[in-house]
Specification:
The complex is a heterodimer. By secondary structure, chain A is mainly alpha-helical. Chain A has one domain: MetI-like fold, CATH 1.10.3720. Helix content of chain A is 73%, strand content 0%. By secondary structure, chain B is an all-alpha fold. Chain B has one domain (97-326): MetI-like (MetI-like fold), CATH 1.10.3720. In chain B, helix 9 crosses helix 11. The longest helix of chain B is centred in the middle third of the chain and has 32 residues, at 98-129. Chain B is globular and about 75 Å long. The two termini of chain B are 39 Å apart. The chains are: A mainly alpha, B mainly alpha. Chains A and B meet through helix 1, helix 3, helix 4, helix 5 and helix 7 of A and helix 1, helix 2, helix 5, helix 6 and helix 7 of B. Chain A: It is a multi-pass membrane protein. Chain A: Its main location: membrane.
């Protein structure tokens, strides 16, 4: 193949791939703006004949999805904030502080990451029931506050902090807490940003645990509310597309604006050894 | 629970980091410089995370094993005193339940067909994007990766309509090529392939990024040398790219399998496990047994079977990796 033909073939595949990737998303947005019934025609309509926002209005007024939006945001922000503090402390300790049993402890944590989280869910539900956290935001938040992956990510990064820097601060009489807040935290800001976005997006997108813990529809997160809605409104294609847009749009915006940090997390997670 | 994904479209990040850490733990230890004395403050830094992880993860996992040997059910949810020890009965009952075998078969179908397909697409996209002459790499990368960050529930709902027999875009597209309409989610033969198709669309971008990182780590000189020796494009791929990518490939296979074995959201939202139970996965079965019928002892046994399956699959692949890298 001539270089020109090769180049053409490569671009053709890349563009075809990109179009296939985008179509479901574009159709979702387009259908959400169609009047009821217009998305269920043959041949399928790609663009609305006339644009309407009635489904979005219905989501917020009649179906009160605004409440779920607030719930999702509240839970995702709280988990993110708390997990940054808790995981960064542990990650720093594993990376830089000397204590008995450090290596075996870390290996146990790392090995536990192969255990599928669903195994813990049945007893966790019973535990939450004992603690009175069923159907409360804390029931969703608490299990997400510490994560082995978060600790792992921060440990990887914190290992690059020079020991001399920490020792010098100790010589000057700085306490450990002061070292953590004044030297460690500022140094690891990039990985904290990465972790914050990861945590926020995965908390927002999580489904199974909120589905299990939250029984009262006023407390539902968006994915739970949406799944429930889609069971009741199977025929209302346009309404369901509006609900999907509402659920996906916030995470898409976060991702598009902060993708540099997010993608760093993918790469950092895949570093071997 | 935040760092895990309870659906398959997304991949279990926890597991991934775990494998990386275990694989690397032997090599790195010597490199750490040991400060002179121990630091008691370390325990205060660790305590919040470790206490949380112990109470809300390790303890429940151990309790799940215990529960799987009991008849914990709706009456025990009301009053735990109603629980009785039943030994292996839950497990033996499972083995005699056709639905359990079907769920296991469906899950393996999804993992063993969907997993390799997803990896193949990821690798293909990474190879295309890694071509030196391609411009707008960042744009393509973003477009291919974007579905990965979206909410699986919402995406599954969108695809349910894409798969619609009469009005769906997919059948319309097939029609343009003269192919008849397929009843994607209504036909037991097509429901799982449909779910696989959607999952590959949503998740391949993640492995693609990892492959791109792996490809970039292969030294350019190796390709130069191969070119000078007159190697064809295929030979260069076979003898330079593939060996260079081998560790990445095994790693990606392990994390993808772990993720795919946890199939839940897609069938929950798109098919409710149907038609004719053709998309009931192990996790969906666990959810139904546990949280719909409150047969928690039974559900715990299902969960442990899933754990064992994932564990064996992981160990087999790590053993293969060892063999591969020793060879």
């Amino acid at each position: 193949m001539s270089p020109r033909a090769a180049r053409f073939a490569i671009y053709a595949q890349l563009i075809l791939g990109a179009v296939l990737m985008i179509i479901p998303m574009l159709w979702m947005v387009s259908a959400s703006l169609m009047p009821a019934g217009q998305a269920s025609t043959y041949p399928p309509r790609l663009l609305p004949r006339q644009v309407t926002f009635e489904h979005y209005v219905a989501l917020f007024t009649r179906l009160e999805l605004g409440r779920s939006l607030v719930n999702s945001a509240l839970i995702a922000f709280t988990v993110t904030a708390l997990s940054i503090v808790i995981n960064s402390m542990a990650g720093y300790a594993f990376a830089k502080l000397r204590f008995r049993g450090r290596e075996p402890l870390f290996r146990v944590l790392a090995a536990a990451m192969v255990i599928p989280v669903q195994v813990s869910m049945l007893p966790l539900f019973l535990l939450m029931k004992q603690l009175g956290l069923i159907n409360s935001y804390w029931g969703v938040i608490v299990p997400g506050m510490a994560s082995i992956f978060g600790i792992f990510l921060i440990r990887q990064y914190a290992q690059s902090i020079p020991d001399d820097l920490l020792d010098a601060a100790r010589m000057d009489g700085a306490g450990e807490l002061r070292i953590y807040t004044h030297i460690v935290l500022p140094t690891i800001v990039p990985i904290l940003a990465t972790m914050a976005i990861w945590t926020f997006l995965s908390t927002w997108n999580d489904f199974m645990w909120p589905l299990i813990v939250l029984s009262d529809d006023a407390k539902w997160t968006l994915p739970v509310a949406l799944a429930n809605l889609s069971g009741e409104h199977v025929q209302d294609t346009e309404l369901m597309m509006a609900g999907s847009v509402l659920t996906i749009l916030p995470v898409m915006l976060v991702f598009l604006f902060l993708q540099r940090y997010y993608i760093q997390g993918v790469m950092a997670g895949s570093v071997k050894g | 629970m935040t760092d895990t994904t309870t659906g398959t479209g997304e991949i279990s990040i926890r597991a991934e980091a775990g494998i990386a850490a275990v694989a690397g733990s032997g090599r790195r230890r010597g490199g750490l410089r040991a400060p002179a004395e121990r630091n008691p403050a370390a325990y205060w830094f660790l305590a919040p995370a470790l206490v949380l992880i112990f109470i809300f993860f390790f303890l429940p996992v151990m309790a799940a094993l215990g529960l799987s040997f009991t008849d914990f059910d709706i009456y025990a949810v009301g009053d735990p005193a109603n629980t009785r020890w039943v030994g292996l009965r839950n497990y033996t009952q499972l083995l005699g339940t056709p639905l359990f075998w079907q769920a296991l078969r469906n899950t393996f179908y999804f993992a063993l067909v969907g997993g390799p397909l997803s990896i193949g697409v990821s690798l293909g996209a990474a190879l295309l994007l890694n071509q030196k002459m391609v411009r707008f790499k960042g744009l393509f990368r973003t477009v291919y990766f974007a579905p990965f960050v979206t909410t699986l529930v919402a995406v599954a709902i969108v695809w349910r309509y894409m798969f619609h027999t009469r009005y769906g875009l997919l059948n319309y597209g097939l029609g343009a090529f003269g192919m008849g309409p397929v009843d994607w989610l209504g036909d037991p033969r097509w429901a799982m392939p449909a779910i696989i198709l959607m999952t590959v669309w949503k998740s391949f971008g993640y492995n693609m990024l990892i492959f791109i990182a792996g490809l970039q780590a292969i030294p350019e000189e190796l390709y130069e040398a191969a070119r000078i020796d007159g190697a064809s494009a295929w030979q260069r791929f076979r003898h330079v790219t593939l060996p260079g990518l081998a560790p990445t490939l095994v790693f990606v296979t392990v994390i993808t399998m772990i993720g795919f074995f946890q199939l839940f959201v897609e069938p929950y939202v798109m098919t409710m496990g149907g038609p004719l139970r053709s998309t009931t996965s192990v996790v969906l079965l666990m959810y139904e047994e546990g949280f719909r019928w409150w047969r928690i002892g039974h559900a715990a046994a299902v969960a442990f079977v899933l754990f064992i399956v994932i564990l064996i699959a992981t160990l087999v692949q790590l053993a293969l990796q060892k063999r591969w890298s020793d060879a």
